[in-house]
Structure formats: C-alpha cells, structure tokens
User: Which sequence fits this backbone?
C-alpha cells in the first residue's frame, strides 16, 4: 500500500510541475497581482469605475471603445488592456457588483511611480 501512495504523490507532483507555467498567471492574479497601469492610463480606471458604479451601459460602452482604441494604438499594454477589459466584460454581463469590486481592487493596487513622486514634489515646490 505504501508503494501506491508514493506513486500517487509522484504522479500528482509531476502533473503540478507540468501545469505550473499555465497556472502562474492565474495564481498571481488571484494574489492581488493586478497590473500597474502607466500613469497616463490610470484615468481609465476612474472613468470605468464611474460607469460601473452608476450602472450606466452607455458610459460603459464609451469606456470600452476608448480602451479598445488606446490598445490598438499601442497606448495600453496587453496586461493593462486585459485588466480593464475584464471589468467591461463583467459589467456587460450585468455583473455590476463584481465589476465594481474588480475596478476598485485595480485602483487600490496602483502604486506611485518615481515620475509620480517627482510631479508631486514639483507641484509642492511651485506652491511654496
């Protein structure tokens, strides 16, 4: 019986190793692995959050079009596009609450870049 137990563990371990490359993006996303949007793209999160929280399909579609256009023009990376587009998809399915929660999580996951910090310091210097 011990022999069978070791064999089962070996097969499970081998299967897990084989699946690891496919699972890593999913595991990262599930662990708060939201992408960092470029500073110029962060306004899209706010606009999308407004559309979703107001449950306005017309505003949602304006955002969807803008996201598509900016991605097509190379202004949004594939990761940024996928993160924003997932929110659009949920809202289009009328999963407004889930879309809102995802948009908020994406917003909260954003961190200041060094360029952001420099802009803040420059504004503060100009105000004094």
Assistant:
């Amino acid at each position: 019986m011990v022999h069978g137990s070791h064999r089962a563990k070996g097969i499970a371990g081998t299967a897990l190793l084989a699946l690891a490359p496919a699972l890593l993006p999913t595991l990262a996303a599930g662990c708060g692995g939201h992408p960092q949007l470029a500073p110029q793209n962060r306004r899209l999160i706010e606009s999308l959050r407004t559309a979703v929280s107001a449950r306005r399909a017309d505003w949602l579609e304006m955002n969807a079009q803008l996201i598509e256009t900016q991605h097509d023009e190379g202004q949004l990376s594939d990761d940024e596009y996928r993160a924003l587009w997932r929110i659009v998809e949920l809202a289009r399915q009328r999963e407004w609450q889930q879309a809102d929660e995802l948009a908020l999580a994406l917003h909260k996951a954003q961190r200041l870049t060094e360029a952001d910090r420099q802009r803040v310091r420059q504004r503060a210097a100009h105000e004094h």
About this structure: Residues 39-127 form one domain. Confidence is low (pLDDT under 50) at residues 19-31. The helical segments are 2-30, 42-53, 57-72, 78-92, 96-109, 114-127. The chain has two domains: 1-31, 39-127.
